[in-house]
């Protein structure tokens, strides 16, 4: 008589340590072997590997990814990314790197564009001021702006990295960085002093200290009579090769009294080594 054969199926273990099968509190060594996982794998602590190869189409992580060595890839898409340190791009001989669709930085943590604009881009400031015929006496410095509701300003977001206003002093514009500066100041007078010789009466000055200055441009605000309106523009392009502990500054000086209806100041900073093409 044939003996009966009893067969059965082993129970499917759960995920708790009491029911599951695995290695606890010791190392699992595999040499010349393959560990194949079909389905999900959950690692609660740390996964360390000398060589980790992923053949799937994507790697997705919702957590921070820290890379201590090189990152190489044929195609890389960076979203909101922070890069610290140098960013070097190397190409084979005869090849040129190309960047497309670069936009203004969305935030101070934008990866490439923020550092580029912060260190390399031109910075500008423009302010038109309605002064309502305000009197400025002779042998005085003129406010470059009023810093109130009479000002109409436009500027690049990071112009203060290159030049700036200090406290409540509106008569001085301080220059902060070496580079090429373009400064223009326009004054429209509604009246003022009118007689005298043909000497200039208004001066655009660059001060390297409280008492040392260079006249960058001169002009004359006088008219044929006290009620004549005149429009005078002062303009200069100059370079600042280096800056020490004491920052140079710009001022506008008038020898004669003048009633100012409007004024405008425009400042542009260019970095050294820039090239700009002009097309007619």
How does this model look, in words?
The strands form 2 sheets. Strands 2, 4, 5, 7, 8 and 10 form a 6-stranded antiparallel β-sheet that branches. Strands 3-1-11-6-9 form a 5-stranded antiparallel β-sheet, with no helix packed on it. It is rod-shaped. The chain has one helix at 112-120, and strands at 123-136, 140-141, 151-155, 163-166, 169-175, 179-192, 202-207, 213-219, 230-240, 249-254, 258-270. The chain contains 1 helix and 11 strands. The longest helix is centred in the middle third of the chain and has 9 residues, at 112-120. The protein has a domain at 123-270: Jelly Rolls (Sandwich), CATH 2.60.120. With 280 residues, the chain is mostly beta strands. The model has no long low-confidence stretch (mean pLDDT 82). The termini are far apart.
